[in-house]
Amino acid sequence: MKLIKPDKKYAESYYRAAEIYKEKNIKLYEFFDMPFEQMAKYTEDMEKGKNLPNGWVPATCLWFVDEQEFLGEISIRHELTENLERLGGHVGYGVRYDKWGQGIGTEMLRQAILYIRKNLPLKKILLTCKDDNYGSIAVIEKNGGVMQDKIENVVDGKKRLTRRYWIEI
Ligand SMILES: CC(C)(COP(=O)(O)OP(=O)(O)OC[C@H]1O[C@@H](n2cnc3c(N)ncnc32)[C@H](O)[C@@H]1OP(=O)(O)O)[C@@H](O)C(=O)NCCC(=O)NCCS
To answer: Using a 6 Å cutoff on CB, does residue 103 contact ligand 1?
Structure first.
């Protein structure tokens, strides 16, 4: 399993994964909802900090794949904003629904940390997750995450407790 830039070879299984997230109403991670060519340009630009939506920072979007299929997506923001410090952090990820609980999230974050070490000037990264997202908590802690605190956020009008973790790069 490896991390790659979005690649057309895996686009079909990427869109299937996004569709299943929609069907299951999973809103903890959003897949890009645009045709592949547009997405490839959008993510390339985003990495270079070009044409960013208001308030966004440059970010690297990577797909986790095996020989055949898309398994998960991870987005690495190159810097933090006040909002990302509260919710979002440096790294966001989602594993394909039918692949949960097979160690893929843990391995994807492990490889992302190696990617950051090699390619970005970050010395430590912030990861945030919902206080009851046990899968994500395990993924972060298995990768050496140290909890800083729990803070209250309001998301879609609802109060939410967010854990904030740091991982040394
Ligand atoms: C969170 C998520 C990335 C976890 O990925 P995953 O591939 O299922 O995680 P892993 O298989 O590597 O599991 C890591 C550990 O978490 C545990 N775990 C996974 N899901 C769990 C759950 N719902 N409850 C309790 N433990 C869970 C696993 O048992 C495993 O522990 P173990 O190795 O001791 O058995 C995945 O569920 C997902 O994509 N969720 C939706 C998006 C999301 O929540 N993104 C993170 C936002 S902060």
So the answer is: yes
Under 8 Å between Cβ of 164 and 150: yes
Note down pLDDT in tens along the chain; length 169 residues.
999 999 999 999 999 999 999 999 998 899 999 999 999 999 999 999 999 999 999 999 999 999 999 999 999 999 999 999 999 999 999 999 999 999 999 999 999 999 999 999 999 999 999 999 999 999 999 999 999 999 999 999 999 999 999 999 9
Please name the amino acid found at residue 124.
K
82 CA distance to ligand 1 centroid (A)? 27
Residue 105, token pair as written in the block: 């999230």
3 state SS of 81: coil
